[in-house]
Amino acid sequence: MKPKTLILGLVAMACGLTAAAMTNRFIQQKAASEVAPAEDKVAVLVARNNLQYGTSTKNPQMLFTIKIYNKGDQPKRAIQMPIEGEMPITEVETKLYEQVKERRLNKQLAAEQFVSTEDLVDSQQSGLSSLIPDGYRAFAFKVDSSSLAGGFVLPNSRVDILLTVRRGDQDSTAKGLLENVVVLAVGTVASRPDDRQTLIEPTVTVAVKPEDAERLSLATDMGTLRLTLRAFGDEKRANTSGADPKALFRKSGDSGDNPNEVVDASVPAVQPVTTGGWTTKVPEPRLPTATPQVPVAEAKEVVSPKIHMMIIHNGESIKRVKFPVGGDLHDTVREEIQKRPGFEKPPSIAPSLAVPATAPAASVPANPPM
């Protein structure tokens, strides 16, 4: 190969390598310019599980966790913190937990619901007053284990309040008085105990509006108050008409045409069974029949007969004779006169001795004219 040809080949190879390197560099710069910048992240504090009203945040790491949002997508009112650069997530959690430590919730929080500063109150505030919502009052009344749902009604529970009024066997009634009421304290315990699942105390304190406090005050004097425990998050209204002795054996939704029908919730509805193209009806279970009521005759009021008194003067002696209204006055007078010593029986008694049955007590002389 001639030297001139070799030189031209080397120059061409060098130019090709240079062009390839420049092209590769240009492509990399263009690709880098098209990559979007990394978005800023924000950490938001949310509840780990369902949290009750009044829950203490003494150990926030047990109650809350963090959720990462792109900046601008996070809830505006949530307790949050921007993640700067390569900041460790544990450092972010620690700083967020410090913002809620040693506080109390003034509302219920569902799992993964964010918490805001408006949802917290200072636990150092004076006692129970810090837990009373705005516009409400704390009202306490007497209870026992049966009216506390067996002791499972705890501080921060939601309950319905029932009133039972006794007016004899047939006039007693039971009716829901208030619904979805917050329990502030059971006895003197205003926070849920960590080592107990039940509380039996003689009183319970609830948060109610002023007008409802007036109703409860009257209800405590009229009858017995009981609490029914609500499930967490259950805020549905119970549209009931109350209960009386006639409704005890009435099915739910029944019009009450048959008051003797006994409710049996343990027997399921009978369903036909289909096997191999044949449909067989399962025999219905035999339910206990209600004992027919035997009509009882109404007891008639026994009226005591009216009694009149006659005063008979015989010299210095005075005798009082009682006889019923409507009786034979002549016979009564005749018998008394014939008892006198030395009396000779006359042929008849003068009509003047007759005294009307409705007249007041009469005075008869010792020697009546014959």
Brief sketch in words of this structure:
By secondary structure, the protein is α+β, with helices and mostly antiparallel strands. It has helices at residues 3-34, 60-63, 89-100, 210-222, 329-338; strands spanning 41-47, 64-70, 80-83, 103-105, 120-122, 137-142, 158-165, 173-186, 203-208, 224-229, 272-275, 278-281, 307-314, 317-324, 363-364. Among the domains are: 41-121, Alpha-Beta Complex (Type Iii Antifreeze Protein Isoform Hplc 12), CATH 3.90.1210.10; 128-229, no CATH class; 307-364.
What do these coordinates show?
- There is one protein chain.
- The protein has 370 residues and is α+β, with helices and mostly antiparallel strands.
- Among the domains are: 41-121, Type Iii Antifreeze Protein Isoform Hplc 12 (Alpha-Beta Complex); 128-229, no CATH class; 307-364.
- The chain is built from 5 helices and 15 strands.
- It has a 5-stranded antiparallel β-sheet with strand order 6-9-8-7-10. It has a 3-stranded antiparallel β-sheet with strand order 2-1-3. A 3-stranded mixed β-sheet has the order 14-13-15, covered by helices on one side.
- It is rod-shaped.
- Mean pLDDT is 75; it is low at 255-283, 349-355 and 357-370.
- Give me the secondary-structure category: alpha+beta
Portion of residues in beta strands equals 15-25%
User: Which stretches are low in confidence, meaning pLDDT under 50 for 5 or more residues running?
Assistant: 255-283, 349-355, 357-370
Q: Multimeric state of these chains? A: single chain
Report how far the terminal alpha carbons are from each other: 192 Å
Number of H/I helices: 5
Q: Approximately how much helix is present in the residues?
A: 10-25%
Neighbour order of strands in the largest sheet: 6-9-8-7-10
Global outline? rod-shaped
